[in-house]
Amino acid sequence: MRRSCGGRGGTIKSDVYSFGLVLMELLTKKKPASSVADKSGEPINIIPYFISSVKDKSLSGVINFEAASEDENKQVEMLAKIAVKCLDQSSRKSPTMSEVA
Asked: What keyword terms does UniProt attach to this protein (predicted)?
């Protein structure tokens, strides 16, 4: 968990991280504490798996695209990229809420 998330009250950066978690949960239909099987079949937390899937452009492993049109797929990919930016553990790299809006 990010340092800025601990303790009482939140920070703008923790709000951005939380927004990324919500986006990821909506896209994957999995809670942030969930595990999935990686390519070798080993269980891995959904957050790093989601991030690597987005970066590797292999979202079909975590998101069901069966009933989606090409335009919907592009929108989902865009939202997934925003989620990854929000989940970035480096405080200097994570965007502000106005940047992701």
From this structure: ATP-binding, Nucleotide-binding
Would you state the torsion angle of the CA atoms of residues 92, 1, 88, 52, taken in this order, to the nearest 10 degrees? 160
Q: What is the pLDDT of residues 21-47, one digit of tens each?
A: 999 999 999 998 888 887 788 888 999
Instruction: Read off the pLDDT of residues 49-70 as tens digits, 9 standing for 90 and up.
Output: 999 999 999 888 888 877 778 8
Question: How many residues does this entry show for the chain?
Answer: 101
99 in a domain, yes or no?
Answer: no
What share of the chain in percent tops pLDDT 70?
Answer: 89
pLDDT at 2: 44
Strands (E), 1-101: 35-37, 43-45
Beta bridge partners of 44: 36
9 occurs within a structural domain: yes
Range(s) of the domain holding residue 31: 3-91
CATH classification of the domain holding 83: 1.10.510.10
Residue 10 lies in a domain: yes
